[in-house]
Specification:
This protein is mostly beta strands and 592 residues long. 5% of the residues lie in helices and 35% in strands. Strand 11 (295-298) and strand 12 (301-302) form a beta hairpin. It is globular.
């Protein structure tokens, strides 16, 4: 991502990044282009892309971004959403004006999709930043359009407060249709990413294309250049330069015949329920509890091809799907019977919070939505000209744990069971990187002892009026003294309020049938173990023993993690299945 010119009093990397609508080639040649949304440098129109160009950050050097909502047409009028927005959820609700923004509006009859100006707010996922720069879900803002409807709220409930705080701290004013955030980059070298986080509409904004990598390099928790496969892309690289470190975001998508994105416009797509809706039931008329597309998209292309050399590569995988869990494997035939025999192992060296204590060899990678996996793959033993395939053996439905082919049918081998093809070519230079089995990773310092244990819950609720229809919403909450879940909605009083600097254990009890990827803002935590219903304890897997910001909470299990909360302010924790997050499976928490 190109930086912006200019300077501030301290040494800071500056960016001005907008969100725009454009057309992009996602489907194979001969098929229509697709209208998407994407981030790009406001001064460089050709940089707008889905997924976004990568922000390269350096440890100890802050990054300041002016995030601009530019969802306007050429005449300056706002653009409606590409996808069906359910206005009956608890969401940003700009039509409610100042009094009713960030609420669940009341309707006397079933409304159609919302077609007004779109709220956005960008969150740096995995960043450890102060509250006004976190991308809080109620700090959204509309584009600075000429035709914003009278009476609409142009900003979310927390926008003005965070605007004032940022300007007092940094002296940089926010403008109409934008927000300015500063990222301290004080954490460990790691694979972060940025995406939209607006209340009740995140699933649609991310699906439309609002996602990008943010790579933090350097500092004592990184490795010297040349130890791992490289180089990675850098600004100013000549055309045709070969890269051996490649970030790859994997997502599932569906398309209409004209190339446009397809996303369900009603609940029928999920369970066949055709109503009744408002006023005869409490089931949202458009929202779907989960979404699973029928194509796989890697870095903005369906089923792409990557030419690799017979040498080591570093891949940074991100599961950017709305609801789909991925189980990745490298095989020799794309239609091989599942579970397929792996052709090459992955050497996992890092997770969300940076490097693991030691490399872990794995035949396959289970990656939940929002998780990142940093791996080395060695193609040196593969004959030149060989075609290999990165496949997915995760299910085409909600993941509940278990093994592909035994506990659930794997993804369709002809479609969602394939991710990309790799063709091995001759090496063009000697590989001087260290073999993964011989890597010595940066020293790992575990967190201090915890001073408190919080018992939390994951629940789902069916309809009150049609009890056999569900889920109606998904909920986080606490446990009472008898171990019974106490489900709570987004706007219930805050129940998690760690002291500044406190280290706590969060014990997350999953009372649903599905596995949920739980993400906590502001902190990188350590997974301790999982306590099963029979009271047996399963320790964290070797690849889960680094720092993480997203963890799989399996059904019927208490997932125990330890976190230190060292920045005061208001943040959120939530399920990162975006359909769940958008319908109550998110809670605010206050540090201090």
């Amino acid at each position: 991502m190109p930086r912006s010119p200019g300077a501030v009093s301290d040494r800071v990397d500056l960016y001005t990044i907008g969100v725009r609508q454009f057309r992009q080639r996602i489907l194979p040649p001969g098929l229509p282009a697709t209208t998407v949304w994407g981030y790009g440098s406001a001064r460089h129109p050709r940089t707008f892309h889905y997924p976004a160009f990568t922000i390269e950050a350096r440890s100890g050097t802050p990054v300041r971004v002016r995030w601009q909502n530019q969802l306007r047409d050429r005449g300056g009028r706002y653009l409606p959403h590409l996808l069906p927005v359910d206005p009956t959820l608890h969401w940003a609700n700009p039509p409610g004006g100042i009094p009713a923004r960030d609420s669940r509006p009341a309707f006397r009859s079933t409304p159609g999709p919302y077609t007004g100006p779109v709220p956005i707010v960008t969150h740096l996922h995995g960043g450890r930043n102060t509250e006004e720069s976190d991308g809080y879900t109620e700090a959204w803002y509309l584009p600075d359009a000429l035709d914003l409807p009278a009476g609409y709220a142009a900003v979310g409930s927390y926008y003005e407060e965070f605007k004032s705080k940022f300007e007092d701290l940094f002296g940089d004013a926010w403008g109409r249709g934008d927000a300015v955030y500063q990222y301290t980059n004080e954490g460990r070298a790691s694979t972060l990413w940025f995406h939209d986080h607006a209340l009740g509409i995140t699933r649609l904004n991310v699906y439309a294309g609002l996602v990008g990598f943010y790579l933090l390099r350097g500092g004592p928790a990184d490795l010297p250049e040349g130890v791992l496969p490289g180089p990675a892309p850098r600004p100013g690289d000549p055309p045709g330069r070969k890269y051996h470190e490649i970030p790859i975001v994997i997502q599932d998508r569906s398309f209409h015949a004209d190339g446009s994105l397809s996303y369900p416009s009603g609940r029928v797509a999920f369970d066949g329920f055709k109503g009744p809706y408002i006023p005869d039931s409490d089931i949202p008329p458009i929202w779907n509890p989960e979404f699973f597309g029928n194509t796989m998209v890697a870095n903005g292309r369906t089923w792409p091809l990557l030419h690799v050399e017979a040498r080591r590569y570093r891949f940074r995988f991100l599961n950017g799907c709305n609801s789909r869990y991925l189980i990745l494997k490298i095989v020799t035939h794309p239609l091989a019977r599942r579970p397929a025999h792996p052709a090459l192992p992955f050497w996992q060296i890092g997770s969300e919070g940076g490097f693991l204590p030691a490399p872990v060899q794995r035949d396959h990678l289970l990656i939940a939505p929002a998780e990142r996996v940093d791996v080395v793959v060695d193609f040196a033993s593969v004959p030149v000209g060989t075609g290999l395939y990165l496949i997915n053996e995760g299910p085409d439905t909600a993941f509940r744990g278990g093994t592909a082919g035994t506990d659930f049918p794997p993804a369709d081998p002809a479609t969602t069971g394939q991710v990309m093809k790799l063709v091995v070519g001759a090496p063009t230079a000697r590989d001087t990187s260290v073999p993964p089995a011989q890597l010595s990773l940066p020293a790992f310092e575990p967190l201090e002892e915890a001073g408190r244990v919080r018992r939390l819950s994951l629940s789902e609720q069916n309809s009150d009026s049609l009890p056999h229809i569900g889920p109606r919403q998904l909920l986080l909450g606490t446990l009472d003294r008898n171990g019974v879940a106490v489900p709570l909605r987004w706007d219930d009083p805050v129940t998690e309020n760690p002291a500044v600097g406190a280290t706590e254990i969060w014990e997350i009890h999953n009372f649903t049938k599905d596995a949920h990827p739980i993400h906590i803002h502001e902190t990188q935590f350590q997974l301790l173990d999982r306590l099963r219903a029979d009271r047996t304890v399963r320790p964290a897997e070797p690849w889960e023993r680094g720092f993480k910001d997203t963890v799989v909470a399996y059904p019927g299990v208490a997932t125990r993690l330890k976190a230190t909360f060292d920045r005061p302010g208001r943040y959120v924790w939530h399920c990162h299945m975006l359909e769940h997050e958008d319908n109550e499976m998110m809670r605010p928490y206050d540090v201090g």
